Automatic annotation (TrEMBL):
Gene Ontology MF terms in the entry: 6-phosphogluconolactonase activity
Domain of life, source organism: Bacteria
UniProt cross-references to Gene3D superfamilies, sorted A to Z: YVTN repeat-like/Quinoprotein amine dehydrogenase
Protein's recorded name: 6-phosphogluconolactonase
Annotated family: Belongs to the cycloisomerase 2 family.
Species in which this protein is naturally found: Vagococcus lutrae LBD1
GO CC annotation terms, alphabetical: cytosol
Length: 341
């Protein structure tokens, strides 16, 4: 049995962070349990020492919060670090340097926090992005992702400026920009995943509904574009936006969710990840697949839907990468983040 953590909005039914029990042998999710009451904990992560770090919002302020699991298995609050305005939309965990990274969509900011042995968070740096793009949702910078590269730099996707930043990170939690990639105007880079070899990455363009394949140079921290593909069927002309992107552990398959088209697109990688080919588009069987994850054994894909409050379970074929629907009605209120621990 393993635990699936669920981050959520708390606008309708949800009250915070939930867990589900994952039986990897039977392929079942059950026992929905509210573990932390928190305002809009839309993204979260766990450190190596069982400290849960989450996005949070309260009293017109936003920031991050930390909780530590006690001897009874219950999470107890350690501290909140809150600032005026909107909360971040992403948190990344750096266990090597004992840091936490935040990406703030509304402010266009990147934040860094030190986390001590007790789980206490302290703000150490803030970087403000500037710029805009041609899309109606790009009137200003919108940092949407901040997490580690394979060589332990920080990569940040800014949806508002159509840029992907690379930063060096000091042991004190200070950022220094070393490279910047400009993607096609109107792309809206949302998230990025890396091939296991560490030299190729895949950028999800939320606004353009695209998958962009890029080279990554560990010497300089620079990205360079190889190719871009649509995540939607050729004949689809409705409204949709990219949701999440994941890659299989062996690097052979990339998965993308489409919010609006309500589907998961499957790509096979070739030539050490430098080339991709779409091999399947399958209905997600829910409304607005904001996030999804592969099970730890990579045999299942679990897709969370923000609007229809359900998780859909797909069996994954490890040989050909394709998905087969198994279950659609697993309750997950306003779920926008899925995290295995």
């Amino acid at each position: 049995m393993q635990t699936l953590y669920l981050g959520s909005y708390t606008r309708r039914e949800s009250q915070g962070i939930y867990t589900l029990d994952w039986n990897f042998e039977a392929g079942t999710l059950d026992n929905l349990n509210l573990i932390i009451k928190e305002g809009n904990p839309t993204y979260l992560g766990l450190t190596d020492n069982n400290t849960l770090v989450t996005v949070t919002a309260r009293d017109n302020m936003g920031g991050v919060a930390s909780y530590r699991k006690d001897d009874n298995g219950e999470f107890k609050e350690i501290n909140h670090v809150l600032l005026e305005g909107a909360a971040p939309c992403y948190v990344g965990i750096d266990n090597h340097r004992q840091l936490v990274y935040g990406a703030n969509y509304h402010k266009g900011e990147v934040t860094v926090y030190q986390i001590d042995e007790t789980g206490q968070l302290t703000l150490t740096d803030t970087i403000q992005h500037e710029g805009n793009g041609p899309h109606a949702n790009q009137t200003s910078a919108h940092a949407h992702y901040a997490d580690l590269t394979p060589d332990n730099r920080l990569v940040v996707c800014d949806l508002g400026t159509d840029e992907v930043y690379t930063y060096d990170v000091s042991s004190k939690g200070k950022l220094t920009e070393v490279a910047r990639l400009n993607v096609a105007p109107g792309t809206g880079p949302r998230h990025i995943v890396f091939h296991p070899e560490g030299k190729v990455a895949y950028i999800l363009g939320e606004l353009a509904n695209t998958l962009t394949v890029v080279n990554y140079d560990e010497t300089t921290g620079m990205f360079s574009e190889i190719t871009t593909l649509s995540t939607l069927p050729i004949d689809f002309d409705g409204e949709s936006a990219g949701g999440a992107i994941r890659i299989s552990e062996d690097g052979r398959f990339v998965y993308v969710s489409n919010r609006g088209h309500n589907s998961v697109a499957v790509y096979q990688t070739q030539e050490e990840g430098h080339r991709v080919e779409k091999i399947q588009t399958i209905a997600s069987e829910g409304d607005f697949p904001r996030d999804f994850t592969l099970s730890p054994d990579n045999n299942w894909v679990l897709v969370a839907h923000q609007n229809s409050d359900n998780i859909t379970l797909f069996k994954r074929d490890a040989e050909n990468g394709r998905l087969t629907l198994k279950e659609t009605d697993i309750l997950a209120p306003e779920c926008v983040c899925t995290y295995f621990a």
